[in-house]
């Protein structure tokens, strides 16, 4: 390159730098537009070993949303619940984490959008000559469009972070639901297994009575049918438990066959539901998007430098990203309306979460009442069965009478055995709605 070309190049670049220096960086501090270009530096690569949630966003500011997520604590007590939770989290594929890292890299790229852009320009002159130029552009004033783009990228990271928290909590909730399903089926099957000896004894008595001509075959068939039904119910429960256990094993890193038992969970939780947190983050992102769209309709000021073999020049251009037409007014109004729509969605999400919470609390109160009543009824039915059995031995009751009472007692015992797990299921749903099944620093 000739000395004069060197001089022209420097003049153009310095002119753009001087004009661009009038604009502030992302933190509001005026700086040289070339200080952070990073010529010759390799492209940033995501560190897959780094924590998924980081309160410091790519633009250097702190995210209150992510900080709040990190402070959340799990309400699961040490015991079977935490054993299940640890096992399924260890095997988590963490697809939502990949989305979060992608959003973080997009925000990293957006955080540098205030810097000048450089690029080649190839044109064909009227004389058929190809002219190659290096064009440098620096936005001086853009009505806040690039600032809104940075805000959008930051909010996009926060939305992805909340989605990751939701995904992790949902995984633990699904695993614990399978665990409770297996426990419930096993408890019901145990009731039948414990009662099977008595029912088989009644069937034997009826066989002997039919052989002795005391009872007819119809009575024996009735008792045998009840025995068969009890065996079928037990087999169905055992199959349901095995299916739930198998599905749980498929999503666990360690075996959970020996884990059993349940623990009460607190339900007076103050944490904001994750669905509401996500809606608020999405509203922030929508507002930023609307501001960027609105700024695109307004004229901005850009410094442009052009360097080619014939020399260099620099200047200012005034232009808008979006053309102005008959529909511009409506487009601007639509951009303004996006913010109101976002607020409405947050309010609707908050209302839906509150309704779901109230419904679960009502269901929980009903189940607890049923649990107490069913336990009392089962105890009364057991006492009634013992009285009928004693009367049958004394010849005062028929075998069919005792079998009918015994069947009712078994049904109540099965219901009483299942209700604690139904209560635990609703408690788990409330905790999942609030998003407090996993510690924030484990997400």
Automatic annotation (TrEMBL):
Residues 332-384 form a coiled coil. It comes from the Bacteria. Keywords: Coiled coil, Signal. GO terms for molecular function: efflux transmembrane transporter activity. Residues 1-24 form the signal peptide. This is Outer membrane protein, adhesin transport system. It comes from Loktanella atrilutea.
């Amino acid at each position: 390159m000739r000395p004069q070309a060197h001089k022209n190049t420097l003049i153009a670049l310095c002119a753009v730098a001087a004009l661009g220096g009038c604009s502030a960086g992302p933190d509001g501090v005026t700086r040289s537009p070339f200080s952070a270009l990073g010529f010759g530096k390799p492209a940033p690569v995501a560190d897959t070993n780094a924590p998924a949630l980081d309160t410091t966003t790519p633009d250097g500011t702190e995210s209150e949303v992510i900080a709040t997520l990190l402070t959340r604590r799990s309400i699961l007590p040490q015991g079977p619940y935490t054993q299940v939770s640890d096992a399924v989290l260890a095997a988590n594929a963490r697809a939502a984490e990949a989305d979060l890292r992608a959003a973080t890299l997009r925000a990293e790229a957006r955080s540098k959008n205030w810097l000048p852009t450089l690029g080649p320009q190839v044109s064909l002159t009227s004389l058929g000559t190809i002219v190659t130029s290096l064009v440098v552009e620096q936005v001086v004033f853009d009505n806040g469009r690039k600032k809104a783009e940075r805000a959008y990228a930051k909010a996009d990271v926060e939305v992805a972070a909340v989605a990751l928290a939701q995904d992790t909590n949902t995984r633990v909730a699904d695993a614990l639901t399978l665990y409770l399903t297996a426990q419930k089926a096993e408890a019901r099957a145990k009731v039948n297994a414990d009662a099977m000896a008595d029912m088989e004894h009644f069937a034997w008595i009826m066989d002997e009575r039919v052989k002795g001509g005391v009872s007819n075959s119809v009575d024996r068939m009735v008792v045998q049918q009840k025995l068969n039904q009890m065996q079928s119910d037990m087999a169905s429960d055992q199959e349901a438990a095995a299916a739930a256990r198998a599905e749980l094993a498929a999503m666990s890193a360690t075996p959970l066959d020996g884990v059993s038992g349940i623990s009460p969970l607190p339900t007076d939780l103050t944490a904001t539901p994750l669905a509401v947190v996500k809606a608020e983050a999405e509203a922030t992102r929508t507002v930023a998007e609307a501001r960027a769209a609105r700024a695109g309709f307004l004229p901005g000021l850009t410094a442009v430098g052009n360097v080619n073999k014939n020399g260099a020049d620099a200047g200012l251009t005034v232009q808008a990203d979006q053309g102005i037409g008959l529909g511009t007014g409506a487009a601007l109004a639509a951009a303004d309306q996006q913010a109101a729509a976002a607020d409405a969605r947050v309010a609707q999400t908050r209302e839906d979460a509150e309704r779901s919470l109230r419904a679960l609390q009502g269901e929980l109160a009903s189940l607890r009442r049923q649990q107490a009543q069913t336990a009392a009824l089962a105890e009364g039915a057991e006492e009634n069965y013992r009285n009928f059995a004693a009367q049958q031995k004394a010849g005062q009751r028929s075998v069919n009478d005792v079998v009918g009472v015994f069947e009712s007692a078994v049904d109540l015992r099965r219901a009483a055995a299942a209700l604690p797990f139904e209560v635990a299921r609703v408690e788990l749903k409330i905790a999942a709605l609030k998003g407090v099944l996993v510690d924030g620093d484990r997400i």
